[in-house]
């Protein structure tokens, strides 16, 4: 048992529900604390819920979020931080990890929601919703005839990059829509439902016959810049890209060039190299692109799922057992 009292940094908005959930934990006394300006944070553990990061991104930190980040950095007894996201690639988590603080994620909590968002992107592009939205704004009745006629989804082929919980759910939903699959991941071990299974290094070989390139991989040294100019050039001109992974998986300038020149059919993009996406980005104005504000995993059930993962890990921590979803390396 790590301490006679476990002090947990959390948000006031989360405190009530968290205190109720913690009643089921067989642990010593648990005290919740919040950032106090000018004082070192006494926490042993931190629960970083969605409301703490709020509208902050990796690139722009709001003052409210900064208060918690400062508290984490000023906590001499901090041993473990649990974050609401599936990834822990923000600088603050990397700094704490390097300091020896255990970092755990909420991997799995938003898998279904992100997969649904990716499929929404596929369906929206396949059914020409950006064109129809423009028509609606212009009050123009333009049936999907001639070169606007959508192609049947059944029989099309998708290359899914990343085969964790999100990628597997995306694959199942694409299969239900009648698409065939190829899978790209860190291992070439065959995926039974996939036509081909290759490593990230062999991605390009799968792209010439692809109708869809769906990105659901983590950001790692192997995936950073994976979708570069050469990869985009290997896709057929009618293909579309769906990115619910991370912005830095894609060479954004090369993607903009390909979309602007109609060397790609379209894109559904939830993540970008700079977030918020700058107003001057050409992506906002392209009629074959759907831009969403890194919200693929947002849903009203996430809060309870994330809290449940944290509480389960707290039981492990109190018993000095290995933590689930721990950042390694």
From TrEMBL:
Coiled-coil ranges from the UniProt annotation: none
InterPro entries membership: D-isomer_DH_NAD-bd, NAD(P)-bd_dom_sf
Stretches that traverse the bilayer: none
GO MF, one annotated term: oxidoreductase activity
Keywords of this entry: NAD, Oxidoreductase
Domain D-isomer specific 2-hydroxyacid dehydrogenase NAD-binding, residue spans: 120-296
Gene3D superfamilies, sorted: NAD(P)-binding Rossmann-like Domain (3.40.50.720)
The protein, known as: Hydroxyacid dehydrogenase
Organism, as annotated: Achromobacter spanius
């Amino acid at each position: 048992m790590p301490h006679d009292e476990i002090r947990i940094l959390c948000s006031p908005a989360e405190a009530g529900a968290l205190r109720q959930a913690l009643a089921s934990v067989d642990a010593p006394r648990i005290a919740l604390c919040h950032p106090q300006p000018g004082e070192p944070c006494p926490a042993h553990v931190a629960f970083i819920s969605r409301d703490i990061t709020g509208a902050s991104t990796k690139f722009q930190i709001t003052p409210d979020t900064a208060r918690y980040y400062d508290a984490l950095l000023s906590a001499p007894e901090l041993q473990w931080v649990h974050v609401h996201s599936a990834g822990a690639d923000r600088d603050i988590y990397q700094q704490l990890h390097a300091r020896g603080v255990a970092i755990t994620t909420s991997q799995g909590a938003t898998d279904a929601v992100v997969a649904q968002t990716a499929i929404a992107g596929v369906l929206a592009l396949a059914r020409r919703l950006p064109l129809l939205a423009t028509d609606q704004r212009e009050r123009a009745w333009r049936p999907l005839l001639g070169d606007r006629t959508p192609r049947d989804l059944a029989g099309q082929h998708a290359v899914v990059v990343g085969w964790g919980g999100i990628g597997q759910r995306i694959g199942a939903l694409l299969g239900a829509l009648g698409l065939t699959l190829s899978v790209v991941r860190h291992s070439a071990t065959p995926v039974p439902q996939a036509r081909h299974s290759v490593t990230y290094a062999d991605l390009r070989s799968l792209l010439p016959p692809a109708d869809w390139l769906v990105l659901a991989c983590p950001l790692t040294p192997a995936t950073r810049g994976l979708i570069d100019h050469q990869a985009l050039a290997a896709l057929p001109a009618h293909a579309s890209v769906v990115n619910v992974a991370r912005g830095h998986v894609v060479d954004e300038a090369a993607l903009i060039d390909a979309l602007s020149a109609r060397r790609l059919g379209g894109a559904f993009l939830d993540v970008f190299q700079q977030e918020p996406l700058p107003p001057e980005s050409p992506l906002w104005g392209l009629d074959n692109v759907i831009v969403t504000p890194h919200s693929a995993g947002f849903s009203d059930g996430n809060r309870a799922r994330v809290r449940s993962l944290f509480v389960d890990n707290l039981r492990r921590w109190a018993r000095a057992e290995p933590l689930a979803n721990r950042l390694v390396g």
